[in-house]
Amino acid sequence: MRLTKPTLFTNMPVTCEDRDLPGDLFGRLMREDPSTIKGAETLMLGEMLTLPQNFGNIFLGETFSSYISVHNDSNQVVKDILVKADLQTSSQRLNLSASNSAVAELKPECCIDDVIHHEVKEIGTHILVCAVSYTTQSGDKLYFRKFFKFQVRAYLTLLYYFLFLYEVFLEAQIQNITTSPMFMEKVSLEPSMMYNVTELNTVASGKECSESTFGKMLYLQPMDTRQYLYCLKPKPEFAEKAGVIKGVTVIGKLDIVWKTNLGERGRLQTSQLQRMAPGYGDVRLSLEFIPDTVNLEEPFDITCKITNCSERTMDLLLEMCNTRSVHWCGVSGRQLGKLSPSGSLAIPLKLLSSVQGLQSISGLRLTDTFLKRTYEYDDIAQVCVVCPYLSPES
Amino acid sequence: MDSGEDAAQRPLTLDIAGVGNEEPEAHAPSEVAAISSQPNSTDVLFPEESIDLDAEAFISPQDDSAASGSMMDKLNDQMMESVLISDSPNSEEDDVPIDSLLEQGEDKESLDSKEPEEEKKEDVKEEKTEDMVTANQAADVGAPTPDSPKGQEEKVEVAKATAKEEPIPVCTIFSHGMQPKTLVPDGFQPTLVKSPSFSSGTNETPNKLAPLVCQPSPSLSKFFTDNGTVNPASDFFDSFTTSSSFISVSNPNAESPKAVTPSECQLSSGSSTVPSAEHQDAGTPSAYFSIGPQDSTPKPVAGPAEPAATMTTLQAVFSGSDDPFASALSLSEVDKRYDAWLPSEETRRVLISVATQQVNPVYVERDRLSMPGLKFDNLQGDAVKDLMLRFLGDQAAMKRQVLTANSVEQNFLGLKQLISTKNWRAAVDLTGRLLTAHGQGYGKSGQPTSHTTDSLQLWFVRLALLVKLNLFQNAELEFEPFGNLDQPDVYYEYYPTVYPARRGSMVPFSMRVLHAELPQYLNKPQESLDRLHSMRSVCEKILTNLEEGLAEDGSMMTLTQENRQASIQLWRSRLCRVMYSMANCLLMMKDYILAVETYHSIIQYEPQQRVQLLSGIGRIFLQIGDIRTAEKYFQEVEKTCEEKGTGPAQDTSVLMNKAFVYLSQNNYAEAHTCFSSILKIDPKNPVANNNAAVCLLYLGRLKESLGQLESLVQQDPALYLHESVLFNLTTMYELESSRSMQKKQALLEAVACREGDSFNTQCLKLV
Fold this sequence. Notes:
The complex is a heterodimer.
Chain A: E1 7-10, H1 25-32, E2 45-50, E3 58-59, E4 63-71, E5 78-88, E6 93-95, E7 103-106, E8 111-119, E9 124-135, E10 141-153, E11 156-164, E12 168-176, E13 182-191, E14 195-199, E15 202-204, E16 210-212, E17 219-220, E18 225-234, H2 236-240, E19 247-260, E20 264-269, E21 273-277, E22 283-289, E23 293-295, E24 300-308, E25 314-320, E26 326-329, E27 334-339, E28 344-353, E29 357-361, E30 364-368, E31 373-377, E32 381-386
Parallel strand pairs in A: 3-10, 23-32
Antiparallel strand pairs in A: 1-2, 4-8, 5-6, 5-7, 5-9, 9-10, 11-12, 12-18, 13-17, 13-19, 14-18, 15-16, 19-20, 19-21, 22-24, 24-28, 25-27, 25-30, 26-28, 29-32, 30-31
Chain B: H1 2-19, H2 22-45, H3 47-59, H4 65-86, H5 91-106, H6 114-142, H7 149-161, H8 172-182, H9 188-194, H10 206-213, H11 216-227, H12 232-238, H13 244-250, H14 252-273, H15 283-288, H16 298-302, H17 305-318, H18 324-330, H19 333-339, H20 345-355, H21 383-391, H22 393-399, H23 412-420, H24 424-437, H25 453-468, H26 472-479, H27 509-521, H28 525-547, H29 561-588, H30 592-605, H31 610-624, H32 627-644, H33 648-664, H34 668-681, H35 686-698, H36 702-715, H37 717-720, H38 723-736, H39 740-754
């Protein structure tokens, strides 16, 4: 028998008032019912444990527990009983028996009991093979096997989205595809050696306590999806060598621990998540500093970092073109000087916005005077432009 | 006249011959009367329809023996009717049924006892004849407007309200109602109350009953006779409103319902089909309400003399209602408190117009009325017995003895007996019979009817039992005609004549709760929530009214401080009950956030349930798998318990919570220890016993676990023959051995000796 967690018995309160026809009959029946909560009979969730009614579903990452009982139904004493429980998956065969030693004898109406556990790590058909060998009184060696077949299914689906800026943002989408709610005990990203990770799943509210973005309860209803967001920043030693972060890089792995009914536990760890770093071309422009909110028609500062990702030295010229909403302050067509390979320089820039709302910063042009090649940088960042006069009260 | 009378007699005798015992006699007349009344009236205008109606009434599934007789009756009755209509003075005869109805109560079987009464009646006869005159007048007046029974009703009301300013419009039915008023209590009441004949009421044996049960009226007659209490009518209709039996004797409210109800019944049901109903004089309406006329047979035989006698009884019965004012006063505060409800705007308008006599109830559109009827009948068996037949053989099955609807008194006492012995299926059957007697039987759905306090209570019990039996679909079907329990005809105001001065909802609050909860069991939790929310807002509105110094319904009525407090308390507890239902519903929907919030908010209303509620919330978190939050709640429980001081109850709940936490941490050994230590405090705690056994299984100790559960079931079957325990036990039997069947059958035998027919056999896993 598979031992999933027991369930709590729920009773169905049907009540009446004293003046009603049954008088206190219904109330008495409910009080006498052992499964109700004394003093609060209308509370549906009782305390009585009931054993699992059927095999149920088993999902990847869960622990498969089973009760193995060998009962002597005959009226003979049998000897040298050996019980073996193996789990056959599509790829391997595991021995789950706690002990491999034979039991000397088993009297009629007695039984050998064993509870086995196994954390399921494969999807697909699993077969539990229970083999029992024993010797009868007459000395015959007998042997029988029983098979229990079950399917392991995936508990959740995972989807990833990457967003590359100077940092890498990882959004993991976790969907509960079972029929029961699951409590996400832990969802964490273990970054690879190149990155530091910041979890963006809490909102700092007040002083110390940070509130989860998922609300008060950390459980996932069936078919619910939840996004976990992580920000990965390259460690300084790697960040220096901007050119290193190219091509395929390993980001890290997700570790998910969940619990369901009465603490039934499941755990999944993904394989290393990899990502293809986008090509930056020859020159990479990233933002070192930018305010998130600025006032309308007031100049603000940003700091750009220009990195030479090519193998040669560049001589750069910076041009700034105004767009409809963003106006650059300062001289356009500035010479930035020579930049050696992997070298970078930071340039403070000033600009203002004439339009409210979320504005995209565009219009930077870098020209390599050696190759006469122009690189355009549009939509490098966004700022929120607000009008300071709109809320005079504050 | 005579011919009519003969007609009435004939079927009677037929019946007697057919059934061969006294009971049939008793109800035979009723049958006759019922039939007679209808065809009479319909005959005049809508013969076809009337026939339809009757046919249906008598087709009602169980009814067969009476059918042939009834057809004859019909013919006869029609003849009789023609006579009746033609000459009004003779209307006296028609009174017979109603009188008999009343009389029946006092002496059903003992004819002897009647005679003295008759004498008395004769004394009163003069008065009565006066009444008759008015009745006749009424009949005459009624004649011109035969097609509007409503009109008749209206007149009745007017008559009542305006205190006989216009004697002419008084319809016969009402003249009955009125008569008592004119007639001062005539000392008959005591006789009625103490009538020796009542002693014989209970001696009817189930066997005798059996054949009768099939028919509506017999069961009812049963009902009346069995109760052995003062007033049969009040017994039937008011017996369970708490103080009822007492009130019903003295309180006109209690009595009048029954007498007038028939009329209402007839009116409303007949209204569409039997427009000329008002022609008939007093007797018929009650007669139609077949309950009434089951008086002992001799009466109809007695002929013309009879009416006089019966009339007096009638007066006697009604004597209490002579003073409408008194009745208004006697309407207890308690009634008002419990019945208060806020109808929807639309319904309120109808009720107001009925109360102010702008609209006669009969004019209210049919689709705005609730017209309930049984949707299924005699479905109920005994699953335990079926299983015994299948697995243990006939002989063993023979041993199974449970109460059935036939083996108890056909009244509320019997019903209660069935419920308390957990024979809910039989109880459902019995409610079906009682409702059939009330004219809301099988196939009656959609036909106009009138409600009484008791008929709605019967419905409530029936539906509650269906829900308890998990027969949700059936419950839903039968609930359907009630709509949202807000039709005008489920309010007392709709029956100003029957329940003068009584206000509020006839539908018991618990029935509303049941109605609201039902959809959630049918996978329509949203509907449940909608209903519960509207109930909640009504409760809150009523509480606000009370706090603002108004009456429950918002009217400017002064309540004494005491009553106000009691009322606030009642409505708080009701609000609480609704909140519980909402939380339970949310829990079923797995909307744990809201469920927890709702449970939490109940604590403020029911601080004494704090420990249980917090523990419950903790368990919800455990169910989700959130052990940490659960522990927080459990800590709060501990704190509360410490404040309360340590008692066994507190220790138990703290230990229980601990055990669940261990369980969730897969630490079955510690969990088992906790459950065991609860047993040291409270060795009989069934939950701890069962849970400890479950833990043993997870520890690989099947035999011990089984041993524990088995000994529990043997030692204290009352406590442990519970679904969940048996389920665990059978599950372990299956695990233990391939020969689990025998052990399960042994369990079945244990169940058979103790449990009623409502036992859920699924937990035995025999099939």
